[in-house]
Every structure is written in structure tokens, then in C-alpha cells.
Amino acid sequence: DVIFFPQGTLPALTPEGKMILETPTSLAVAPDGNGGIYPAMVKHGIISDMKARGIKYIHAFGVDNALVKPADPTFVGYCISSNADCGNKVLWKTSPGEKVGVVASKGGKPCIVEYSDISKEMSERRGADGRLVFG
């Protein structure tokens, strides 16, 4: 079965963090990003539906990831056998200007920092081994 549900939105912000107006009386909004899938699944009853149908695992990925192997049996199987809450398979960036997000830690929890949200200085920073720090 295929179930469609809408992605959430958040107020659109300038690089300085100010809200953008769409009209003089309404805020502009933007999609809430890849992580928004999880609250949207709860909000629209997808999680409850999955539980009712006995679905225990999902494989979610960004539609713009041309290299992903949907339902990769090795990766999904490894995550299941490791009793992982979630898994994340990534490649190290090939250059500082590559337009991909990076895995980071925020408040002690893993997160993805989008390439557009990282400073030029941070994107170019290299470790003692010469590798990109934020790769």
C-alpha cells in the first residue's frame, strides 16, 4: 500500500534569522526539511497505521539522493541485527564546496547540518591529517 501525506512547514527566515513576510499580513513558509518526515508521520496517523499492520521497520531517504539503494538489504539488515533505533549511511565530502549536508552533533544528539547552513570557514577546515573536519 502507498499512503501520501503532506510535509510540514516552518516560517522562512533570512540568513540573519528574521522572519520573511509573504504579504504584509502573513509569514512566508518553507518545507521543514528531511527530519520533518517523523512528526508528519505521527500527525497524519502513519505510525498508528503501520503499527496496526505489523510494520516494524522503514527505510526513509531523501528523494534527491541518486546513490541510495532503496531497501538496501545489507544496510537494513545490519541496523535490525544491531538493534539500532536508526541508521545513517553517508560518504565523506570530496571537496569543501560540495553541496551536501554533514553529520554533526548538536546538544549531544546526532544531526545533519545542511551545506547552506555551514560557514565557508567551517566547510574548508581541515584536520591534522589533511581531511575535511566537516566532511
Walk me through what this model shows.
The chain is of the alpha+beta class. The chain contains four helices and six strands. The chain has helices at residues 37-43, 46-52, 73-81, 120-124; strands at residues 9-11, 21-23, 26-27, 29-31, 102-106, 109-113. The protein has a two-stranded antiparallel sheet. The protein starts with 8 loop residues before the first strand and ends in an 11-residue tail after the last helix. The mean pLDDT is 91.
Strand order of the largest sheet: 1-4
Poorly predicted regions are: none
Order of helices and strands: EEEEHHHEEH
**Helix tally?**
4
Instruction: Classify the secondary structure makeup into a structural class.
Output: alpha+beta
Strand coverage percent: 15-25%
Shape: flat
* Total beta strands: 6
Ends: how far apart? Answer: 37 Å
Write the layout of secondary structure elements.
Layout: E1 9-11, E2 21-23, E3 26-27, E4 29-31, H1 37-43, H2 46-52, H3 73-81, E5 102-106, E6 109-113, H4 120-124
Antiparallel strand pairs: 1-4, 2-3, 5-6
What is the gist of this entry?
The protein has 135 residues and is an alpha+beta fold.
Which properties best describe this structure?
two-stranded antiparallel sheet; alpha+beta
